[in-house]
Write a structure and sequence with these properties.
mainly alpha; 2 helices
Length: 119
Amino acid sequence: MPRNLRKIAVIAIALMALAGFVSGILGARDVAYLPGEATSATPPETPAVAAPEVTPLTTDPPPPPEPEPEPEPAKPEEAPKPPPESQSPAPTARTPAGQDAVGDLIQGADAATTQPPPY
């Protein structure tokens, strides 16, 4: 960005900031007051609104909803059977150097019990 264009952008931003500050000062009230305090200028008197269909609000909160009864857990008729023992013994940490422990695990796995990899 050329240097002259940067100067113009900086001047424009500074003028907008100064204009915002000045408009904030000019728009402020003459006398400051805290929230909830009466203002110095009294508002004009307005007539009360006639609304016969309006009901007053209650100060009591509504009662909490009744808790739903918990469903009884289903009782199993039979205890789940443990999975069948694999036919090949699982390799141990002390397998001889010439054996393929991972290959034995893969060959011993049943295709029906293995899950496909998540894609």
